[in-house]
Amino acid sequence: MANNEVVKEKNTEDDSDYEILDPQRVFSLLPLRPYQTVADVWCGAGSFSISLGKYLFDGKVYAVDISHPSLRLLKEQLSRIRLGNVETVFSKTKDKIPIKKNILDGILIAFSLGKVDDQGEFLKNLFSHLRVGGWTAIIDWHKKKKGIGPPLEERFDMSEVISLAKKAGYKFVKDHNLDENHYLILFRKTGK
Q1: What is the SS3 assignment for 192?
Q2: Is the domain 3-188 a CATH 3.40.630.90 member?
Q3: Cα separations in angstroms, 182 against 8, 16, 77, 175, 189
Q4: What is the pLDDT of residue 59?
């Protein structure tokens, strides 16, 4: 479903060994601070959530998903590695998250825009959970036909994502090509 479809662990004993995207490289592009509260939205089995939990050693991670089996797998991994600052959160709907408003310093949305029904409404709903100055990072597939990844109709061009996010109230900060298949776009919440 989310980033676990794309970012799979090669070795279950080594949480930092990923096939496609290295979370530490991704984090180096974000305004992450060790004390922040961050949501990994549609986290899947938690490929990024676990790494975020380790990075945010004085903060908190909400690992949000609509799949009980994925969250169960993530809980087992968290228990095994004794990582206590990651809280799994089940959501009943794809377009909203059950977290208090205005409490998040950051939101990570990895490989999930194509999975929601209304991307604009989804981003607008997430916006309300951010504190002023908070950031949102969207990682997704370039919109070009490749042998790997989701179907073309589930992909968004970077300009489409930027337009959707601006309409939802976000301020564009930067974009970055992670590799030939993936991009990252960073936004901020400004004003009220």
Answers
A1: coil
A2: no
A3: 15, 19, 26, 11, 23
A4: 98
Burial class of residue 46 (count of CB atoms within 10 Å of its CB; 0-12, 13-18, 19+) = buried
Mean pLDDT, rounded, of the chain: 88
CA atoms of 173 and 114, how far apart (whole Å): 22
Going from N- to C-terminal start, the domains of the chain cover 3-188
Whole-angstrom Cα distance, residue 1 to residue 63?
A: 13
| Chain segment 33-72, per-residue pLDDT in tens | 999 999 999 999 898 999 999 999 999 999 999 999 999 9
- Residues near 76 by Cβ (< 8 Å), separated by ≥ 6? none
Q: What share of the chain is helix, strand, coil (3-state, %, to 5)?
A: 30, 25, 45
Q: What tokens does 113 get? A: 């825009």
- pLDDT at position 192: 57
Rounded CA gap, 186 and 138, in Å?
A: 7
